[in-house]
Amino acid sequence: MERGEKIIDASVAVKWYTPEEGTDRAVELMNKHVEGLITLTVPVLFYFEVVNALRYKPDFNPDKLKLVIASLMGLHLEKVGVDAETLILAVEIAYEKNVTVYDAAYVALAVRRNTTCITADEKMLKNLAGYPVEKL
Questions:
Q1: What 3-state class would DSSP assign to 20?
Q2: CA distances in angstroms from 41 to 10, 27, 37, 125, listed in the order given
Q3: Angstrom distance (rounded) from CA 113 to CA 7
């Protein structure tokens, strides 16, 4: 992986906390961030999506999710708040590609920051073809 910034979506981070296909690649990406080799950037929405996805996994409960939250915050990911230009672009992408504004937000952020969005979501990869989205 080259140096620089990458946008990651929640599907990548979920793999940090639950073993599934691609967990090894997700952890490798996280480790590169921790080592300062790359910067992982996320919209604030990311935190809600990660915790929500884990909330529906049977081996998680409120106490375990509190540990996940502490872990996520401890990673010092580059957090980006919402701004009108990124939100407008997300809406345009959502309509163009028939995806949720939530999914489009990650790609809009990647476009605005001139980088790529990394996802483990095959449907997102397919639906957002033509935009800077790459598979984990």
A1: coil
A2: 11, 15, 13, 18
A3: 9
Matching residue, tokens 């809600």: 48
- What pTM, to 2 d.p., does this model score? 0.92
Q: Which domains does the chain have, with CATH numbers?
A: 4-135 (3.40.50.1010)
93-111 pLDDT, tens digit each: 999 999 999 999 999 999 9
The HSE-up count of residue 128 (CA atoms within 13 Å, CB side) is: 31
Could you read off the pLDDT of 20-41 as tens digits, one per residue? 999 999 999 999 999 999 999 9
Token digits of residue 85: 């230009």
Q: Are 90 and 104 in contact (CB under 8 A)?
A: yes
Rounded CA gap, 51 and 62, in Å?
Answer: 10
Q: ∠45-39-110 over CA atoms, to 5°?
A: 55
